[in-house]
Write a structure and sequence with these properties.
Length: 271
């Protein structure tokens, strides 16, 4: 792992994500190294063109006292969009914790999204915010598959247990079922295992991007060769997702769940 410390002036970036005003990414790169990650495009803008995704991390160094919590009152902040706020190295550098400590007085709505059990470390801080929600993203409950597709992230059960702990402290929680792998992601099972401690669900399909296609197809070929043809169909004809989208709608409605579907159909969302 190539690790550098990089001085930055600000850690807030205006966001293009619908419903999110600013994103906060405490690191450049992501130790989790998920095979499907969409954030790899960041390499081009951060002098990491020749580096392998998941094998480098820049720790953003800034004067945390410059964070002005009231500047973001009424806005929505997401932590994080192109890294994970609770990477293993967060234990050492504590960037996420230092940022949250400085934001406590804001009335901004804060969304924390992670694949790490480390988030429970900051429950004391979460409880000090007026408007915060904490979520995990998850694609599978199968530990073996998770180890292949998201090798450094906490295993699925650890993520669920961490979310349960957060919920038990009276905090709003969500599960982001993402990316949804056709046939492989058993979203019904994920919901059944988590609904007692989840306020709402979001769904996103697997997005085929030039940089992740070889890795996704290598995974399918090695682990699920019988699905190779189907995955080619999903890649070439994004309308295939419509059926899954309707199944999710039916399932969530019949189980009286709060949910939103953020599927992309060849680069855009129909929802
Ligand atoms: S945790 Fe998120 S940002 Fe990090 S590699 Fe996985 S998908 Fe990408």
């Amino acid at each position: 792992m190539k690790i550098q410390v990089r001085q930055v002036k600000s850690i807030f970036t205006k966001s293009m994500i619908p419903g999110v005003d600013f994103v906060i990414n405490p690191f450049v790169g992501c130790q989790h190294g998920c095979i499907y990650c969409y954030a790899e495009f960041m390499k081009r803008f951060t002098n990491h063109g020749g580096d392998q995704w998941g094998k480098f991390l820049d720790i953003k160094l800034l004067d945390f006292n410059r964070i002005k919590p009231h500047k973001y009152d009424g806005k929505s902040l997401l932590l994080s969009s192109v890294t994970d706020p609770y990477l293993p190295l967060e234990l050492k550098y504590q960037n996420t914790r230092k940022i949250l400590e400085k934001l406590i007085c804001t009335t901004a709505s804060i969304t924390i999204l992670t694949k790490s059990k480390l988030m429970v470390r900051d429950i004391d801080l979460f409880k000090k915010f007026k408007n915060i929600e904490i979520g995990i993203s998850i694609s599978t409950l199968n530990e073996k598959i998770s180890k292949i597709i998201e090798p450094i992230a906490s295993n699925p059960l650890e993520r669920l247990n961490a979310l349960r702990e957060v919920h038990e402290q009276g905090l709003k929680t969500f599960v982001f079922i993402s990316p949804l792998f056709p046939v492989i992601t058993n979203y019904q099972k994920i919901i059944n295992e988590s609904k007692k401690f989840t306020t709402y669900y979001m769904f996103e399909n697997l997005n085929f991007r030039p940089h992740n296609i070889p890795r996704i197809f290598k995974f399918i070929k090695e682990q699920f060769p019988e699905l190779l043809k189907l995955y080619k169909q999903f890649k070439n004809n994004p309308d295939q997702w419509d059926l899954i989208e309707r199944d999710i709608e039916r399932f969530c409605q019949s189980n009286d769940l709060r949910f939103s579907i953020e599927f992309h159909h060849g680069g855009f969302s129909k929802s």
